[in-house]
Amino acid sequence: MININENFLNLQDSYLFSTIAKKVAEFQKNNPDKKVIKLGIGDVTRPIVPAVLEAMHKAVDELGIQQSFRGYGPEQGYEFLREKIAEFDYAKRGVKIDIDEIFVSDGAKCDCGNIGDILGFENKVAITDPVYPVYLDTNVMSGRSGKYNEKTGMFENIIYMPATSKNNFVPEFPEEVPDMIYLCLPNNPTGTTLTKEQLAKWVEYARKNKSLILFDSAYEAYISEENIPHTIYEIEGAKEVAIEFRSFSKTAGFTGVRCAYTIVPKELKGYTKNGEEVSLNSLWNRRHGTKFNGVSYPVQRGAEAIYSDDGQKQIKENISYYMNNAKIIKEGLQASGFTVYGGINAPYIWLKVPSNMTSWEFFDKLLNEANVVGTPGVGFGPSGEGYFRLTAFGTKENTIEAIERIKNMK
Ligand code: PLP
Closest by alpha carbon to 262, among 237, 235, 236, 283? Predict the structure, then answer.
């Protein structure tokens, strides 16, 4: 008889995006003449830039020629890409990362989830609330949580660190010390970032408590302000306590192409039950090499091209395009009296729902009156209740129109 992993039965249905889709479909059926503008989903819309396309085309052609054909590549990623990552994303920011600390993969989502393979199941997990749901769900799957509590909307045995307007979206250190701490900065969904000084306090906390920080910086490319660290390793001592996840998805429109990477420094240690130190880099290397067979050659060539002069210029144009949308949303909503957060170092605008409505009530109002779709904050965690996320990933024309319609709402 096949037993199942019963932890999966603890998962709550991720009804957020399916409920949104159902509500939108129903609205469109009843109002076929209305143009609905979607500013809900966190997916990019600008096409892949020419420098990347050209590199990928060339790489595909190479595969058709005997002399340049390639089969399996190194599981950790080709050196040509890892060298570029080490140089551009780290050395240029004064951080030394060796290429054997870089693991190229097909997504930060998978890496954020898979990292749990090498960590003890009894580890206590802390997540900020609200946040990207993958950290929580993957730990529920692997049994690090208790049961779901319908009343609180929280899982037992998980430490939730609220990030709301009360603390300026900067979570406080929890009373109970966690072993694994997920930090997503710039944050999805609130758009918050931490300054170097604020992040240094987390590094210090983790060092003091021998905790591990799982630092997701999928939106690093959107940072526009000074004194915001682009990598956690800009903080002294972080290599001893942090794993960093990066993705080309939002940086270069790779959500469909798929390429990301994870940094596991060699200084980073975990502990056996007997207190012996073990290198997390070697555990992740073993795990990655056993369960993953590398990102395809053309995709890695495409990712490499992001670092060329043309590539850099072109992806920055797309990021500016999105961040101009963020500005349109932020300023437009502020002018209409909304309280708005984010949108400066992240493509997400996090707004306070007016008149004490719930975030789902505001969703319905926005859909019915402005025909605009966003994401209810409570979908990202219980502390997201009363907030709402709009994304800057639409077209400029639709963004302007959506904000005009919201302004005209009663
Ligand atoms: N991390 C965060 C915070 C995200 O918001 C997302 C996507 O929305 C991801 C990771 C997923 O990245 P990838 O496309 O590389 O799997």
Answer: 283
